[in-house]
Amino acid sequence: MALREHLKEARNRLIKSGIALVLATVVGFFIYNPVLTALSEPILDLNAREGREAVLNFDGVASPFDLLVQVSVFIGIILASPVWLYQFWAFITPGLKTKERRVALSFIAVAVPLFLAGIYLSWLVLPNAVRVLTDFTPSGFSNIILVTAYITFVLRLMLAFGIAFLLPVVLFGLNLVGILTGKQILKAWRITVFLICVFAAMAAPGGDALGMLYLAAPMLVLFFIAIMLCLLNDKRRDRRRAALDAKVEASADTASDLDGL
Fold first, then answer.
1. Domain membership flag for residue 125
2. Three-class secondary structure assignment of the chain
3. Which of 18, 61, 217, 248 is 20 to 30 A away from residue 114, measured at CA?
4. Residue 253 scores a pLDDT above 80
5. Please, which pLDDT band fits residue 58 given cuts at 50, 70 and 90?
6. Which residue segment(s) compose the domain that 161 sits in?
7. Over the stretch 180-218, which tens digit does the pLDDT of each residue have?
8. Would you say residue 248 lies in a domain?
């Protein structure tokens, strides 16, 4: 495809993703209240179970509306994830022939559950993260937390977990289309492990080492599983290439024999 055609395809896929995101965001408006209540539970538990004084507070007239939009868009990102993940992968899959369509659908079948699993894992980590971080509050003080800052912290944490779980799938997908080999990924395992730990330390809440472990451990397991799958796929591709070369060589020998006759 020419550059203009690639740009046109990218525009069309962005439009489809945008439409799906808008429709899912509308759904997010209707379920905003129960979702906000669920996200606020870790703060409410501090009051109910540990006897602390912790409240969520709005700091402006327009803050409730801003929060409504922010949470609804986040809900839309999650609900529309099958669409925008497919559009992303379909764009980088060349040609979209029958085989590539199967690869794209396989990518979605794995990527969407992993993305949602990352979101769910962050939800499990969140109460412990809130408890550990608020433990630094000195005795006699209260936690009056801006609700916009708290929700931003929660949504960023969830997106970090969800996107982190997509990394191994992207690596395997790039291997499937022949951009990266398993050996190339394996050679960089040390720096990758280091970067995963750095990312986990930055994405996990402040001083919570347990949150970092919760994020880094699954990413490392998925990364090494992706390496194994890439190496197996490389072996399968090499066997297929060797069989094709043998067939071509046999055809060439047959043609030489016919020329001799």
1. yes
2. CCHHHHHHHHHHHHHHHHHHHHHHHHHHHHCHHHHHHHHHHHHHHHHHHHCCCEEEECCCCCHHHHHHHHHHHHHHHHHCHHHHHHHHHHHHCCCCCHHHHHHHHHHHHHHHHHHHHHHHHHHHHHHHHHHHHHCCCCCCCCEEEEHHHHHHHHHHHHHHHHHHCCHHHHHHHHHHCCCCCHHHHHHCHHHHHHHHHHHHHHHCCCCCHHHHHHHHHHHHHHHHHHHHHHHHHHHHHHHHHHHHHHHHHHHHHHHHHHHHC
3. 18
4. no
5. confident
6. 3-236
7. 787 888 887 888 888 878 777 766 655 556 667 777 787
8. no
Which CA distances in Å does 208 have to 153, 161, 216, 235?
14, 15, 13, 42
Question: Is 254 inside any structural domain?
Answer: no
pTM score: 0.67
pLDDT of 223 higher than 50: yes
Q: Is residue 243 part of a domain?
A: no
Give yes or no for residue 244 having a pLDDT over 50. yes
For 59-84, b/e burial (b = at least 16 CB within 10 A) is eeeeeeeebeebbbbbbbbbbbbebb
Q: Answer yes or no: is pLDDT of 165 > 60.
A: yes
What is the number of structural domains in the chain?
1
